[in-house]
Amino acid sequence: MKQARSWLLLTAFATLGSVAYGKPAAADKKTATDTAAKADDATPKDPPKDAKGDDTTPKDAKDPKKDEPGGDFDVCQITPDLPGCKGGATAPISGPGAGPGAAGAARKDVEAEVYAVQQIYALRRGRFEINPYWSFSLNDQFVSHPAPGIAANYYITNVLAVGVNANIYAGLNGDSDFNFQNRRAARVAVPLNEYQWGANANFTYVPAYGKFAAGFGKFIFHYDAYVVGGVGVLSTRPIPVIDPDNRKFSFNPKLNFNLGLGLRIFFNRWLALNLEVRDYIFQEQLENMAVAASGVKDCKNCATDPKTWNGETSITNNIQAQLGLSVFVPFSWKYKLDK
Amino acid sequence: MNRKPNRIVALLLAGTASLIASSAFAQENQIAGPLKDAPPVRNLRMYREGRFEVAPSASFTLLDEYRRTIFLGARLQYNFKDWLGVGLWGGYGIVSASTDLTEKIDQKSPRGVTTATQISPDTNGGFDKQTGRLQWVAAPQVTFVPFRGKLALFQKLFTDTDLYASLGIAFVGTQERGACGDTTKAGQKSCSDPGSFALASRVAVAPTFGVGFNFYFARFMSFNLEYRALPFSWNRAGFDQRGTGNDGKFPDQKIDGEDRTFKWNQMITLGLGFSLPTKPTIGN
């Protein structure tokens, strides 16, 4: 009885093993042609998976006879051009009539997990991107406009997103020493402006993606490039240069349009380094370069009248470079098709 | 007030660096089995190794105060390895255009006693004639290519790419207002003399570095986009700005080396590279 129980256990163990490998005994007889035909099937016939969804089938278990002398695996049916196959003529990999090249190739392990089409590394569709960044001005040699900012985007498709971004410039504008030098030497003042905040609604389009091998090929980094554009508001005011004793400007929001280019380098599937250059275009209000004389235009002390402080307006490009991190949520997702 | 942004930038950079360090390893090839230790790419096109490259280029200076320059030039480079090359980048300024500020100063700056040593009289060509110019640049350099890869555009056009960094020493031919006002030196004019606003040539030596992309749209041809910086001090306006007073920050009625101020000279370069031999080596 005890012996019978042992045999039963052994049989059950063996059965479990074959179930786990997903290869009934009859599958051993399958030809390579069958295998090749099924490889094109977009929805595989449920090979056993481990927790990560990887095919765990050991190679030997998949086709135990392929290396056996006299086995009927015919590699030339898959690759007729293989040396030894003689222009498509089928030849067994071993045994009588087998070419040396074919036999050698057949002895090599078949890697069943190399895919003709790789999945996109980081899918964007249906995910939110949170992008905190630091930005600084590229084109204003008179006043620097560094600003922390944050952007949030939602990807409607894998290449198109809608979102918003905001910058806080207040307290960070830097009047360059060069302005002072210039005023002292040339006796010419240049109207200066500072920014308070900006907020925009944007569309993002991702036309390009690729990957880099880094560290001499050891690591692979995926990246994409995108175009962003939108409309928003930028709050600015002139810095009083001509008559700072009397003039105190307050911030006023202005309509702005923006257009930019960006590059994201993915560290993993949800975190990326973000580099962007964006041009915020708006109509700027400049300081009046002359001080109004008193008693003119119905005002007793015109220099203190705010109506006399504003000068001309000018279309201004505020080109900002941004460096930040992109965090995509949810962190993981399910591909529509298996690998 | 200036400390605050610096601290935030430092924190952001430190955070980025730590995330790079921790996450980069997550990308390491985890393949086990027969492909373990196999090369990630077979038949790799070695676009650089053993090839000589000639890349005509146009460079556009950025954030200029008084004068913009467009250089026509070229990069000549020999690549010992796919990731390492040595060469020479150079250019000649074919366009040197005044900025809006220069024109404003020319039009609005009062000519009189207060500006006599600073602004050239209209009869002498005006302010435009005294502003400094970048005439030519020649920079022997070493180029590292730590990243190579590929790019899909609109999911239809595919191109091989690389990201590189160059480091070298630049010899920059500049023209800036000549020395004046030092009466102890023979032949020097007073700085209020109209003749003192003439430009003098000088070769400045500066470090240079560049970061750029190459896009290989054919096996022997590539498109190149590069950012380059050449930081050094020069007198761009021709002003007498320093030399006396507290910390020497007040005009001393002389034009000399002390009036040169530091400038992060920077430019964007577009180039078209041709590689020889025309066929790249194919890796195993």
Topology of this structure?
The complex is a heterodimer of chains A (339) and B (284).
Chain A: H1 2-21, H2 32-39, H3 59-62, H4 100-107, E1 128-137, E2 143-144, E3 147-155, E4 160-168, E5 174-175, H5 177-186, E6 192-214, E7 219-239, E8 252-266, E9 271-287, E10 310-329
Antiparallel strand pairs in A: 1-3, 1-10, 2-5, 3-4, 4-6, 6-7, 7-8, 8-9, 9-10
Chain B: H1 3-24, E1 45-46, E2 52-62, E3 67-79, E4 84-98, H2 100-108, E5 133-153, E6 157-177, E7 199-218, E8 221-234, E9 243-244, E10 250-251, E11 261-276, E12 281-282
Antiparallel strand pairs in B: 1-12, 2-3, 2-11, 3-4, 4-5, 5-6, 6-7, 7-8, 8-11, 9-10
Could you explain the architecture of this structure?
The complex is a heterodimer of chains A (339) and B (284). Chain A has 339 residues and is mostly beta strands. Chain A folds into two domains: 14-107, no CATH class; 128-329, Porin (Beta Barrel), CATH 2.40.160.20. Chain A is 15% helix and 38% strand. Chain A has five helices and ten strands; from the N terminus they run H-H-H-H-E-E-E-E-E-H-E-E-E-E-E. Chain A has helices at residues 2-21, 32-39, 59-62, 100-107, 177-186, and strands at residues 128-137, 143-144, 147-155, 160-168, 174-175, 192-214, 219-239, 252-266, 271-287, 310-329. In chain A, the strands form two sheets. In chain A, strands 1-3-4-6-7-8-9-10 form an eight-stranded antiparallel β-barrel. In chain A, a hairpin with a 4-residue loop joins strand 6 (192-214) and strand 7. Chain A is elongated and about 80 Å long. The two termini of chain A are 48 Å apart. The relative contact order of chain A is 0.11. Chain B is mainly β and 284 residues long. Chain B has one domain (44-282): Porin. Helix content of chain B is 11%, strand content 49%. Chain B has two helices and twelve strands; from the N terminus they run H-E-E-E-E-H-E-E-E-E-E-E-E-E. Chain B has helices spanning 3-24, 100-108; strands spanning 45-46, 52-62, 67-79, 84-98, 133-153, 157-177, 199-218, 221-234, 243-244, 250-251, 261-276, 281-282. In chain B, the strands form three sheets. Chain B has an eight-stranded antiparallel beta barrel with strand order 2-3-4-5-6-7-8-11. Chain B has a two-stranded antiparallel ribbon with strand order 1-12. Chain B has a two-stranded antiparallel sheet with strand order 9-10. In chain B, a hairpin with a 4-residue loop joins strand 3 (67-79) and strand 4. Chains A and B meet through helix 5, strand 6, strand 7 and strand 10 of A and helix 1, helix 2 and strand 5 of B.
